[in-house]
Amino acid sequence: MIELFSADTPNGKKIGIMLEEIGYEYKVTKVNINKDEQFKKEFRKISPFSKIPVIVDHQNNKEVVFESGAILIYLGEKSKKFYDLKERLKINQWLMAQMGYVGPMIGQHHQFHHYNTGKSKFGEDRYFKITKTIYADLDERLEQTKYLAGENYTIADIATWPWIARHEWHDVGLKKFKNLSRWYLEISKRKAVIKGYDFMNRGEIIPKP
Ligand SMILES: N[C@@H](CCC(=O)N[C@@H](CS)C(=O)NCC(=O)O)C(=O)O
């Protein structure tokens, strides 16, 4: 059994989706990041930067894995699903791009454009512009390939999709990006994605473009 310490955010949803995709039994332990539970001493023992998500693999000597990208790789290697070692070089590039660029930049767009409007024009303009560029760059990639790392659905898609699923907050207009919308909609229809998107059982529905 895998224990998932998480909150209902794009980084949290990645792992809910992956666990549903690989069909593993898992238990969600909620960490309320709005009430600073991530800073509690007990949680910091498994999460050195006080961040969700983290997993504990009770079948594997209570192995702890933090950082969503590392968790996806761990689960991909363990299940031998969505992380084909022959495609590893391509998958890693798109996964790292999500971890180091797509997520952090869109995350800042959420901070300035969604949560803190009016506090910093510079911040709002900067991250709005970067988010639009990310949409365009992903669209260009998905014009050439079916999925981000090539012809197969992989952990790189699982890592990126939950960020685009917040498109209503972005005000970029997902519909305008034909290839990105095609990819988004196709992944939205997967049973595991529908279930993993709502891994906190709040009745959440995936927003349409
Ligand atoms: N690179 C990390 C980022 C994790 C992260 O930023 N988690 C956020 C929620 S999405 C969090 O725990 N925030 C609480 C805080 O910063 O205090 C990952 O992908 O796992």
Give an overview in words.
There is one protein chain. This protein is α+β, with helices and mostly antiparallel strands and 209 residues long. 54% of the residues lie in helices and 9% in strands. It contains nine helices and four strands, in the order E-H-E-H-E-E-H-H-H-H-H-H-H. The protein has helices spanning 10-22, 41-44, 68-79, 88-115, 121-144, 155-164, 167-170, 178-188, 191-197; strands spanning 2-6, 26-30, 54-57, 63-66. The chain has a four-stranded mixed beta sheet, covered by helices on one side. Helix 1 (10-22) packs parallel to helix 3. The longest helix has 28 residues, at 88-115. The radius of gyration is 17 Å and the shape is globular. It starts with a strand and ends in a 12-residue tail after the last helix. The model has no long low-confidence stretch (mean pLDDT 98). The protein binds glutathione. Residues 7, 9, 11, 33, 38, 50-53, 67-68, 99 line the site of glutathione.
Rounded to the nearest angstrom, the radius of gyration is 17 Å
Helix content: 40-55%
Query: Helical segment tally?
Result: 9
Q: Secondary-structure element order, as H and E?
A: EHEHEEHHHHHHH
Q: What would you call the shape?
A: globular
Low-confidence stretches: none
Could you give a short account of the major beta sheet? 4 strands, mixed
How would you classify the helix and strand content by structural class? Answer: alpha+beta
Distance between the termini: 35 Å
Q: What's the number of extended β-strand segments?
A: 4
Hetero groups in this structure are: glutathione
Strand order of the largest sheet: 2-1-3-4
